[in-house]
Amino acid sequence: MNKIIKYSAVFICVYSVMTFAQTGTLTGLVFDAESEKPISSATITIKEINLFSTSDSNGFYSIFEIPVGKYTVDFVKNDYLPFSVNGLRIDTAKPRELEIGLLHEYYLDYYDSAFIKSNLFPTENLAQPFILDNNYFTLGDKHNNHKTYFNKYIKGYNALILQAIDKVQTTALDGGGYFIGIKAEPPESPIGYKLKLFGNELIEPPRKTSYCSGSTYTAFIEALNLIFEYQEKPLTYEVYEAMRMQELDNGRREDDIKFWGKWNADGFGNHFALVQYSDMGKIIEPNNALPGDFMNISWTNGGGHSVIFLGWHLDDTGELNVVYWSSQKSTNGISDQVVPISRINEVMVVRLTKPEKLFYLDVNKSTSYDVKGCKISSERIKEANDGM
After folding, report:
1. Residue 22 DSSP symbol
2. Are 51 and 63 in contact (CB under 8 A)?
3. Which of 17, 92, 242, 292 gets the most CB atoms within 10 Å of its CB?
4. Which residue range forms the structural domain that includes residue 136?
5. Which H or E element spans position 216?
6. Counting beta carbons within 10 angstroms of the beta carbon of residue 25, is it exposed (0 to 12), middle (13 to 18) or buried (19 or more)?
7. DSSP code string of 357-368
């Protein structure tokens, strides 16, 4: 009889501890650190007690009935770098909230110092026009392998611009959407994430979408971040403010106003900003264009497009095309695109050659919009293709 009573007492004691144990809750959001878009199906694990949750389609997660204490919380998602929070305190006072931004695994080698330091010089012309064969298109139109693919052909600042393209594309692997509309609410956004120059914010994006000149300017800025990653950056406030894509109150920066206003102006914005306004670039003949060069296109039916040149391509019908990267409605935003040159009236190609001129920018310098474009010589390009 005494033995039975002892076992009963043990059972009651354990039951009482379980009933009155103090527990807390962990809730939060998992998002892409660059695009700020929610990440679904991420696994959130409390390491010491093996409790876990999975983020929903909006990036939200919750873990309930966590015993009070300090824990390590792991955040894991395929194609992203894992992230851990150590010593996180859980108590009963209120749910603990934790928002975590994950970086795409692409960033493992993004700031490769050897690659960056080996390309700190102006890109030089090649002997022949740059032709892309069909192998390139196996990568798809929304890929982040420009750096890897072009590495054996392109050296210098253009190589870092191609790497910058990959960073921008990684923020919107589905394109991110394309939208233009100054008077819309919210208004158009040149790019869909918080672009920064040397850690200084250039835009608070009103939308997650983009448009052409916004995407190319973003790649230009991200290239500057790479070029000066391991160098002194004597950026004055005056120059920083001139590089912003919005006014200081986050209102729209109008065309022709400072650096972004020149870049975004109608016509050959790359010329206005890089050649005239800042002296950071030089004009390149279309036949000498190389991957990573900035190109403005004037269409035969009117209007224009701001792009980054990737190559010429002769398709199976014998038609000559230009391949570029930009943001356009037909590709749902940021993407490679192939366009017949028969649709093009003129182009202006500009190559980044003197990025250090950024630090000596005369922010009040005026520019002329009376600039003539260049015709594309299809004969020479086809001759180069025949010689491959």
Report:
1. -
2. yes
3. 292
4. 109-386
5. helix 212-227
6. middle
7. GGGG--TT----
Q: Do residues 170 and 55 share a domain?
A: no
Domain identity same for 300 and 358: yes
Kindly report, residue by residue over 124-160, the tens digit of the pLDDT: 999 999 999 999 999 999 999 999 999 999 999 999 9
pTM listed for this prediction = 0.77
At 1 the pLDDT is 34
What is the DSSP secondary structure assignment for residue 274, as one 8-state letter? I
Contacts with 236 (C-beta within 8 Å, 6 or more apart), sequence order: 359
The residue to which tokens 């050649």 are assigned: 275
Same domain, 32 and 78: yes
Does 254 lie in the same domain as 284? yes
Going by C-alpha positions, the residue among 260, 65, 312, 293 that lies closest to residue 159 is: 293
Q: Same domain, yes or no, for 321 and 213?
A: yes
Stretch 16-28: mean pLDDT: 70
- Per-residue pLDDT, 230: 87
Q: Are residues 287 and 334 in the same domain?
A: yes
Give how far Cα 9 sits from Cα of 17, 21, 287, 365, Å: 13, 18, 90, 88
pLDDT band per the 50, 70, 90 thresholds, residue 108? low
Q: From the centroid of its chain, how far is CA 16?
A: 55
Write down the pLDDT at residue 17.
37
Supply the pLDDT for residue 103.
Answer: 83
- How far apart CA 321 and CA 342 sit, in angstroms, is 8
Boundary-marking domain end, from 86, 104, 122: 104
**CA 384 to CA 372: how far, in whole Å?**
26
Domain count, the chain: 2
One domain, residues 58 and 81 = yes
